[in-house]
């Protein structure tokens, strides 16, 4: 499933801004500047700055026009995370040194994980359409101030396992390329596969589940299907 670029539409951006203001620590009326970090990669198939920035700017114009936040002035600082787990938290620390209040993004899982772990220590909200991995469900210990507003692998996993239960399939074999669909997110298929495997191992022990990492050599696929799938997981 591919995240829709329509996520960055004006109504959604307005909601994100209002949510962030609601989550902010109490600000005196004399402190009217609200500093927001827009943390997205410069170049990315679905969440690039070129795609996100126009919606952000239009949302801010609408907030002012409708006087939704009459005592606040929204200032957005842009950071190119490059979907990197090091660059993103470094940018977050620079933003904090400047007295930041909230984060839009990061969107890529590995950069988001780093920033979202620090954010609770600062008491700042993180709003993101990313965070596909199932690990982001841990809001009790690690990602306390993270709000995900997009699709996630945990909902995909629940749908898949519900279908398996409906058809009473007792066994499943998961085949995936850990580096597949990297244009969407780094190691997209690895994160998706991990969510399914974890759910089966912890919540659905009634299903016999196994997985195979596919190599980059397509000539091996036939052998995998014959020996791993056909011999062990075919129906009687």
From TrEMBL:
<dbReference type="InterPro" id="IPR028082">
    <property type="entry name" value="Peripla_BP_I"/>
</dbReference>
<dbReference type="GO" id="GO:0038023">
    <property type="term" value="F:signaling receptor activity"/>
</dbReference>
<dbReference type="Pfam" id="PF01094">
    <property type="entry name" value="ANF_receptor"/>
</dbReference>
<dbReference type="GO" id="GO:0007165">
    <property type="term" value="P:signal transduction"/>
</dbReference>
<keyword id="KW-0472">Membrane</keyword>
<keyword id="KW-0675">Receptor</keyword>
<dbReference type="InterPro" id="IPR052612">
    <property type="entry name" value="ANP_Clearance_Receptor"/>
</dbReference>
<dbReference type="GO" id="GO:0016020">
    <property type="term" value="C:membrane"/>
</dbReference>
<dbReference type="GO" id="GO:0017046">
    <property type="term" value="F:peptide hormone binding"/>
</dbReference>
<dbReference type="InterPro" id="IPR001828">
    <property type="entry name" value="ANF_lig-bd_rcpt"/>
</dbReference>
<feature type="domain" description="Receptor ligand binding region">
    <location>
        <begin position="52"/>
        <end position="177"/>
    </location>
</feature>
<keyword id="KW-0812">Transmembrane</keyword>
<feature type="transmembrane region" description="Helical">
    <location>
        <begin position="6"/>
        <end position="25"/>
    </location>
</feature>
<keyword id="KW-1133">Transmembrane helix</keyword>
<protein>
    <submittedName>
        <fullName>Atrial natriuretic peptide receptor 3</fullName>
    </submittedName>
</protein>
């Amino acid at each position: 499933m591919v995240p829709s670029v329509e996520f960055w539409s004006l109504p959604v951006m307005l909601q994100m801004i209002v949510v962030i203001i609601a989550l902010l620590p109490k600000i005196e009326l004399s402190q009217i500047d609200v500093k927001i970090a827009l943390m997205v990669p410069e170049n990315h198939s679905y969440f690039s700055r070129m795609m996100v920035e126009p919606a952000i700017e239009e949302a801010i114009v609408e907030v002012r026009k409708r006087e939704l936040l009459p005592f606040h002035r929204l200032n957005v600082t842009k950071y190119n995370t490059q979907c990197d787990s090091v660059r993103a938290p470094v940018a977050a620390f620079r933003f904090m040194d400047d007295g930041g209040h909230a984060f839009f993004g990061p969107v890529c899982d590995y950069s988001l994980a780093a920033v979202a772990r620090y954010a609770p220590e600062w008491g700042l909200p993180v709003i993101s359409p990313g965070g596909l991995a199932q690990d982001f469900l841990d809001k009790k210990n690690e990602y306390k101030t993270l709000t995900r507003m997009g699709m996630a692998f945990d909902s995909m996993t629940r749908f898949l396992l519900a279908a398996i239960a409906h058809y009473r399939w007792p066994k499943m074999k998961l085949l995936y390329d850990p580096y597949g669909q990297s244009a969407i997110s780094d190691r997209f298929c690895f994160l998706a596969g991990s969510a399914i495997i974890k759910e089966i191992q912890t919540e659905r022990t009634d299903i016999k589940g196994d997985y195979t990492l596919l190599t980059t050599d397509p000539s091996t696929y036939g052998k995998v299907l014959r020996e791993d799938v056909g011999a062990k997981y075919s129906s009687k």
